[in-house]
Amino acid sequence: MLQIENLVKKYDDKEILHGISLQVNDGEIYGFIGHNGAGKTTTIRCAVGILPFNSGEIHIDGKNILTDPIWCKSITAYLPDNPDLYENLTAVQFLNFIADIFEMSADKRLDKIASLGRELEIYDMLGDQIKSFSHGQKQKLALISALMHDPRLLVLDEPFVGLDPKAAFTMKNKLVELCEKGGSVFFSSHVLEVVQNLCNQIAIIKEGNIIMQGRTEEIMKSGESLEQIFLNTENM
Amino acid sequence: MKRLWIITKMQLLNLFFQNNSGKKRKIPSVLISGLIMFALSLYYSFLFSSVMETEANVLPAMVSLLGTAIVFFSGVSTSQGMLFGFKDYDMLMAMPLTEKDIVTSKITVYTITQYFYTVLLVIPAMIIHGCRSGADALYFVRAILGFLAFPLIPMVLSVLVGLGMQALTAGKRYGKMLQNAMTVAMIALVYFFSFNSGMNSADPSAGIGVGKIVKYIPSADWYLHGVTENKVSLLLLMAAVGIALYAAFILIYSRSVIRINARGNQGYHVKDFKLKKTAGSSSLGALFRQERQRYFANFTYFLNTSIGMIMMAGFSIYVIFINNPIKDSLIGVIQEYPEGSALVWQTILLSIHVVGQMTCTTGSSISLEGKSLWILKSIPASVREIFTAKIMINLLLILVPSLLSLVGFGIAFCFPPLYYLCGVAMIIAGALFISMLGLLINLRFPKLEYDREAVVIKQSLSAFLSMMVPLFLAIGIMVLYFVTGMVWFYAILAFYVVCDIILYVLLVKYGFERFRKLA
């Protein structure tokens, strides 16, 4: 579903990503971990077509993000770590904006907004201005906007930050649900326990290089926790 | 005291010393902009005083009036975000700072900002007037010392109006719309009053009109007569009233700052929300709607870009119904001399065009995406659609009032059909020009990191250039028109059409790529 090959990204003359390669298969949840400044967000932003990159290739469902950006984006949803939304709109206006962009029918959007709104417990607030939302509520709203158009690839940057335990649980279920339907999830997180329990594949990035990647069970075959494995990579 | 200095210094640095590249420059951009504005102010003051040579004191009268208006109207919008509903409220309140420190720093920063812009307008004009009229050294002392108290009264009044608006509109569903409507009504009232008290005179001399209006604005009147007529008592009166009002403002503000800011930045809530079925629209429609909502929800954005157009449209309607000696004499010229008729209608069209060139929403529209730029970049909408939506809102804001003005002036002065034909062409060409130019400028100088949207709309390089470049170009062209004669009108029209084509090509060739690289 998502294929990144030899991705190189520079900011001015400084190279941030030194040729990253990874592959997220259909029906898989892929966890992407690394310490602050390792290059997780940069990789994710390149993958969803927000950041241009210097060399390498990114394909979503076989199509190149540079040559077919609209098609790639039409089957992808992205949720940033700190979703800054259009604060002057009401939540439902924002969701209708997203629904229009993804060409959702009136019936489908009504159904999706209502069900996801109730599931994430912000239905009663959908008429409120986004400005009045807390960080967690904005996160939930952004999650609804990401899930409502049934993306085939969901890319999330630190999705559990700011969510209450129930919402975090709902989100985990949603990710699994999406993968069971054949979709794929690629997300970064510092919550290693969640990554360990949820992901089929894991990659560890350090200073712009992937230093470890593979299926979760392979990475964890030593019997150590993901936290211990991650801490061991500090010496690599 | 040390902490007060630290937070005040940081806020001033954040306000005046930001730049787009994030790199430290040897000469701060605020200093460069200030010098450019000071030089421009000197130049235009000189030009103005040369043209109005016969009118004594018309330049100081004009700047006293303009200075007061600028402090007042910019104060209404600047106070919101700087004094009320400031975003660093939580951060500051959580720090080991006294409430007094926070209040003092906010007031200091606000006051310095207001003085900064006013000094660039008033002092150069007073210097030019003093030099040209051969004033003695004491005149300059009075002008500079008097200036220290000059902005105080309009500044306090603007804060009071801003506070009133905030109280009436904060947390209300149609609060922003109400705020915009109140501002338009307030400015219309000022216009109406000015027109009827000063300009509605058989005497075409602008100087006399300005002098009449100044009489109704005490602070401007005191400063003008105090400086130019050596009436120190008036300057002392202005200082006393100003300081008393300013002290009262500090007292009221310091007592209510927490209450105001606690509710100032919150959005509105709806009780008993019911989800309704909504018909879908195209991507372009959705993008346009989002742009429109952002525009009308932003008071500063609206105030900075639409007021001129709305006032002009209102004025054109007003002109249809009034009986005015200037209007009658113009109609006389139009009826008696066909050549004079062309001169009048072409001048009116160029005037509509100049006002239109002051309406540039695209100059900040990319910057205003700010941290939410990720939305536009991650949705399946093409750059062409995104740009079209941004340009469409600018076109709408120019075309509707411009066409209304065209019809209004056309009816009022019974212009021939050619007037309408040329008018429509000129308005469309000019609107496309400013919309595309603004977008290109903003793509070249985007400012995506800021704490208040007002910083982008009022203080960014892009906003400054997209306002000044087309405006000076339009004014220059108008001057050229008067110097060279009417034949140039069609050349001007052709110039804008050619520019539109060039700008479109630039937008496609350069702008699309530039947007893709933004992050």
- Count up the domains of chain B: 2
Shape of chain A: globular
Number of helices of chain B: 22
Could you state the order of secondary-structure elements of chain A as H and E? EEEHEEHEHHHEHEHEEHH
How much strand of chain B?
A: under 5%
Helix content of chain B: over 70%
Name the structural class of chain B. mainly alpha
- Terminal residue distance of chain B: 40 Å
Strand order of the largest sheet of chain A: 6-7-8-3-9-10
Mean pLDDT of chain A: 89
Q: What is the count of helical runs of chain A?
A: 9
Rg calculated over all Cα atoms of chain A: 18 Å
Q: Which labels suit this protein?
A:
A: 236 residues; alpha/beta; four-stranded antiparallel sheet; 9 helices; globular; B: 519 residues; 2 domains; 22 helices; 0% strand
Describe what you observe in this structure.
- The complex is a heterodimer of chains A (236) and B (519).
- Helices cover 37% and strands 26% of the residues of chain A.
- By secondary structure, chain A is an alpha/beta fold.
- Chain A has a six-stranded mixed beta sheet with strand order 6-7-8-3-9-10, sandwiched between helices.
- In chain A, α6 links the parallel β7 (153-157) and β8.
- The longest helix of chain A is centred in the C-terminal third of the chain and has 16 residues, at 165-180.
- Chain B is mainly alpha-helical and 519 residues long.
- Chain B is built from 22 helices and no strands.
- In chain B, α14 packs across α15.
- The interface between A and B is large, with 52 and 40 residues.
